[in-house]
Fold:
Amino acid sequence: MKNLIKGLWIFSLTIIFMTSCSNQDDGSGNDKPNYEFENEDFPFLLEHYNTVNQRLVFKNEEKQEFSFKLKQFEDSNESYIVTGGLGPPSSSLIFNYDVRTINFEFEQYNQPNGDLHILFNKFSDTLRGSINFPLWNTNEFNLNSEKINFDQQTIVLNINGTTFFDVIKIESGETIIDFEIGPFTKNVNILYYDLKKGLVGFDDLNGGEWRLIE
Structure:
């Protein structure tokens, strides 16, 4: 049931973005709502990631490292358009909304399907977020995305002398490794995500505890 719910949520998110286009208009778009990021949203939008040569480096207890280098930090304003009705196809602009896209290149596997994606949007005047982690353990090969729940109860995590106060624990719920990506198994089943600092750690099914070192 959990996998079904997660699949439906991701499917719905996909449909939303498939029906979105920043340049389309139904001719009366000037009076449509435009949901922009507000001041209260920006603490959660990872502004500090937008620096030259920004890297996220994680190390486990065996001194192994995985690193991700920033390749895209982009803001846009998209349009939610519904197509349908009887007769000739018609499109109606419902509203516009802000989007922030953050992509990191997985330096140990330099392929597009290895990117770490973090996405925020103001769809329907609600701040939403998702994280797509390339080594995420799931029973569906293409379902690497998980919702960032801004209302989830947070925990405090101390990493290398730095205390993170707003960490949520995202769990895949899977215990079997089904897929690989390049030379690596998709065995990460827990993400530690600080709502104001971003990804700070993850655990894998082999007992590895990977924590942010820079």
Notes: The chain is about 10% helix and 45% strand. The radius of gyration is 19 Å. The first strand starts at residue 34 and ends at 35.
